[in-house]
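tool=predict chain=A
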Amino acid sequence: MLRRFLDRKLNHPRTRSGAFPLRRPPSLARDQAGVALITVILIVSLLAVVLVEFAYNSRIQLRMADSFSKQLKAYTIARGGIDSAADLLLYDCRKNQIDYFSKPMDSLDFSGGNLAEGAKLEEIWSWAAQGTPFSYPVGDGLLAIKISDENGKINLNQLDDPKLRKIAVRLFENLISTGTGLEKAPSAESLVDSIRSWTGGGVNANEDFQGVGEDFYQGLSTPYSSKAGMLDSLSELRLIGGFTSPLYAAFLDGAGPEAKNGDALSSPLLTVFPQQSSAAKINVNTAPALVLESLHETFTPGIAQEVVDARKEKQFASTAEFLNEFVPDSHVRLDLQNLIAVKSDVFSISSTGVVGDLAVTVKAVVIRLPGENRVGLLYFRVEG
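tool=predict ok
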């Protein structure tokens, strides 16, 4: 009996310390295995998300690098176009004593590195201004250049000259009378006087000043001061009293909604270059008909069109030739002889470089300095 008792004690599931051996219930073991599986799935999912994000960022970085490379190439091409155009203008200055619109070629192809057979470089700058493509491939990109004559426009920084001021007034009157929705626009005289006041021009106390002055700007809900300096861009007109959005658009030759983004080179009729007063004259070989019509009160739209038609056949070799042919009145000739020219010094250049789907445009205004055998830079802007 004692032996059986000892055998039962020794084989009892409780240990000597009174604890039972750890035996996991089947349900608990299954639960722990499920938790482990879920943990593994979460880790794998997180790793997958990290890998996807890494791959996405890598693609973005590659695209950004490719875009930056294309943009840099496009800018380099466009910047080189400015230098090429400047060299071309300097070459033209050495070869020709006048500037005019030469008859353009049907197309201009530089792809072979040379001009087409029989092509001449004389007045090549004017081809693009008349609609002829002026572009050629550069490496894996494309270069497009346009050169325009700023001396064929009316300079708003020269309005202190009484004769140039009258020309500007006549142009403004034409623009206002032909524009849409400008019935309530200020008078041309008041707009010209407002520009003079804005730039700090010599407005005399005893003259009939019709524009707005400093008091107008200080009385606005958000006051500001007039510039008291030369215009740097045509876009400054939007700050000058009287120049409403429709009027500003009309002055940029009907640019419409795009006028709000207009810069210093936006108008074929107006310019702010050069900024020095009385530093340039209007080139009758390149001035648009509306500018020619504004030269004198005796000039009609018909006369202006006659000038445009005549210079298509033969450019004016001198101002005397122009005056003798179209200005019979000696007093009118005297008024105009110091305001017009047949040669230009200031040109605007728009150079666009295209690589793939990216384009960069560099705009510049240069002045030819033949005495120094170089071209000076007056304005520079990068777009895109």
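The chain has a mean pLDDT of 83. The first strand starts at residue 135 and ends at 138.
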